[in-house]
């Protein structure tokens, strides 16, 4: 049995080369193909790849989810490995992966990711709740360690994960209603609700620290809130939508007042806080239209 590796790319050809080189170095004999789906990068491919590497180029920019689905649907193997362009293996892993997939009920296996020091860089989360949106990302990061919900569902991120193709076919792949964020959370939740099993296998380690795909700015914050609201709404996990929206808006308005105060106090970095204020106002207007 061999696997297909899928790598989405947007203008990160050097990272793609590093990823492919590492994959072939450790597991060439167990790799059927490597599919790179280029999301209409402004820079065309200038690297000569081995023959088992297939390049698919989108004619227009389709964003992450549709790009990944193209690669997954075109793959010919029963086991599919999805890696971000800036991820790469640091040792052989496919033999172990194939052994895990001998359990025919398993549809998805998540991997551990590590940083430059070999420490866990965090490649999973637990399924979110509306409380995260109410508290905000920073406060929720602090409070989530006290989350004692039973039967919390572990969600491996799509930067380093694997699937059985029949599982993806059954569930119709990633939902491109989520163009960038939360498509992996949505798919994992649907796997849990299906006949398929999902496991997290930390014995497989992939290097990945992130930060090369989505800019961390106000647009990302807008995208996060929109995607997360729609995700929770899809699975009926917003028990009181009007109250939840009001609580989110109350927190955002308080944050806006704090930012305005900082604009007055910190004159040397005033442009930074003015930009944050603009982003908060845009976010408030968007949240007002949540339903």
UniProtKB/TrEMBL annotation:
Keywords: Glycosyltransferase, Transferase. Pfam families: Glycos_transf_2 (PF00535). GO terms for molecular function: glycosyltransferase activity. InterPro entries: Glyco_trans_2-like, Nucleotide-diphossugar_trans. Residues 4-136 form the Glycosyltransferase 2-like domain. PANTHER family: GALACTOFURANOSYLTRANSFERASE GLFT2 (PTHR43179:SF12), RHAMNOSYLTRANSFERASE WBBL (PTHR43179). Belongs to the glycosyltransferase 2 family. This is Glycosyltransferase 2-like domain-containing protein. It comes from Pedobacter psychrophilus.
């Amino acid at each position: 049995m061999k696997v297909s590796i899928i790598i989405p790319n947007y203008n990160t050809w050097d990272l793609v080369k590093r990823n492919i080189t590492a994959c072939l170095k450790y597991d060439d004999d167990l790799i059927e193909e490597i599919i790179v789906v280029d999301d209409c990068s402004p820079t065309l491919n200038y690297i000569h790849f081995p023959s088992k590497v297939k390049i698919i180029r989108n004619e227009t920019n389709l964003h992450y989810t549709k790009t990944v689905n193209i690669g997954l649907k075109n793959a010919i193997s029963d086991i599919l490995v999805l890696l971000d362009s800036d991820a790469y293996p640091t040792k052989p892993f496919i033999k172990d992966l194939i052994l895990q997939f001998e359990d025919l009920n398993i549809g998805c296996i998540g991997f551990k990711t590590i940083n430059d020091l070999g420490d866990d860089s965090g490649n999973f989360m637990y399924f979110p709740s509306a409380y995260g949106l109410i508290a905000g990302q920073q406060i929720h990061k602090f409070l989530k360690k006290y989350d004692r919900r039973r039967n919390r569902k572990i969600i491996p991120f799509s930067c380093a994960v694997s699937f059985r193709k029949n599982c993806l076919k059954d569930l119709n792949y990633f939902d491109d209603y989520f163009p960038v964020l939360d498509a992996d959370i949505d798919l994992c939740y649907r796997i849990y609700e299906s006949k398929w099993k999902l496991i997290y296998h930390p014995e497989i380690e992939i290097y990945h620290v992130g930060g090369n795909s989505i800019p961390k700015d106000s647009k990302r914050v807008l995208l996060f809130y929109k995607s997360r609201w729609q995700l929770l709404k899809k699975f009926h996990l917003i028990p009181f939508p009007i109250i939840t929206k009001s609580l989110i808006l109350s927190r955002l308005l308080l944050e806006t007042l704090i930012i305005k105060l900082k604009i007055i106090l910190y004159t040397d970095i005033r442009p930074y806080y003015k930009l944050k204020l603009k982003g908060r106002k845009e976010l408030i207007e968007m949240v007002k239209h949540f339903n």
